[in-house]
Amino acid sequence: MVFISVVRDFAMYDRLVRNNPSNAGAELVAFDNNAENKTIPVRYNSFLNSYDYSKEAWFVFCHEDFQFLEPVAPKLESLDKGAIYGVFGAKLRVPGVGLQIDSNKDGSDMSFRGAPVSKPTTVDTIDCACLIVHSSLVAKHGLRFDENLTYDLYTEDFGIAAKEQYGIDTKVLPIRSHHYSYGNVVPRFHDQLRYLNEKFATASRVYVTTTCYAIGKATELPSVAALINSKRRIPHKWLFYKKISHKGRLTVKVLGVPVWRRRAYSMEAWHNGKDI
């Protein structure tokens, strides 16, 4: 494994990535963006352009504020090397695939996001906090990040381009993780979203992001938001409804009346690598 990160806060990087026992055995590549501030796609591509592909490895591109909560190497041993992987993703009508803890930078206000998966699960796109791809797949197709993007949507683009050009699937792994950021949707994000919708205007279909935006075939875009939210309007949900909150609480309603509430997931257990 080779972990590749663009770093500005080395104290956080050391705690969550460099000294994380879950990453044991990995080679670490840290780009110091304090010395020279370059965009993440440029940094990632500089690694891909300089790597010796005679040495096969899993590339783990991750943020400085991203933490694996269980050993990574065993999760990668039997994986199909012909796919792209992440820990949290989205597909149409399922905006959260993979269970992950999010929090502020200091670890406060922790909450669950998404739902757990029991096996690698195909999605439209994955979150930028972590992307995993095998060196052999990169070498075979010359995969690269789009340097027209800066700090948003670059993993979404990486996966969509791979799917459209080479039929490569993107999947979410069943692995515990904690992202010490809730992220921000700023004007720059929307500029880059417009760029990707122009880039993939003739794509074979629409791709959904973890922020519930759509990228892809322009003629289909107006209907995507409605499709994502359509499950909320299906009548049987009024008859029987089950939801797990961001705090890990399960609520069951029958005929619109709550009949059962209990803790479904424990963040403490999840963080300590215990079954939940």
Number of strands: 19
The averaged pLDDT comes out at: 86
The low-confidence runs, each spanning 5 or more residues with pLDDT under 50, are 228-238
User: How would you sum up the major sheet?
Assistant: 4 strands, mixed
- Helical residues, percent: 25-40%
Order of SSEs: EHEHEEHEEEEEEEEHHEEHEEHHEEEH
* Rg from Cα: 19 Å
The protein's oligomeric status is single chain
Shape: globular
Describe this entry's structure for a reader:
Helix 1 links the parallel strand 1 and strand 2. 33% of the residues are buried. With 276 residues, the chain is α+β, with helices and mostly antiparallel strands. The protein starts with a strand and ends in a 5-residue tail after the last helix. It has 9 helices and 19 strands. The strands form 6 sheets. The chain has a 4-stranded mixed β-sheet, sandwiched between helices. A 4-stranded mixed β-sheet has the order 4-14-8-9. A 3-stranded mixed β-sheet has the order 5-13-10. About 4% of the residues have low confidence.
Q: How would you summarize this macromolecular structure in one to three sentences?
A:
This protein is an alpha+beta fold.
Could you outline the blueprint of secondary structure elements for this entry?
Layout: E1 2-7, H1 10-18, E2 27-32, H2 40-50, E3 58-62, E4 66-68, H3 73-76, E5 84-86, E6 89-91, E7 94-97, E8 100-102, E9 111-113, E10 121-123, E11 125-126, E12 130-134, H4 135-141, H5 154-166, E13 170-172, E14 177-179, H6 187-199, E15 206-208, E16 214-216, H7 221-229, H8 236-239, E17 240-244, E18 249-254, E19 257-263, H9 267-271
Parallel strand pairs: 1-2, 1-3, 5-13, 8-14
Antiparallel strand pairs: 3-12, 4-14, 6-7, 6-11, 8-9, 10-13, 15-16, 17-18, 18-19
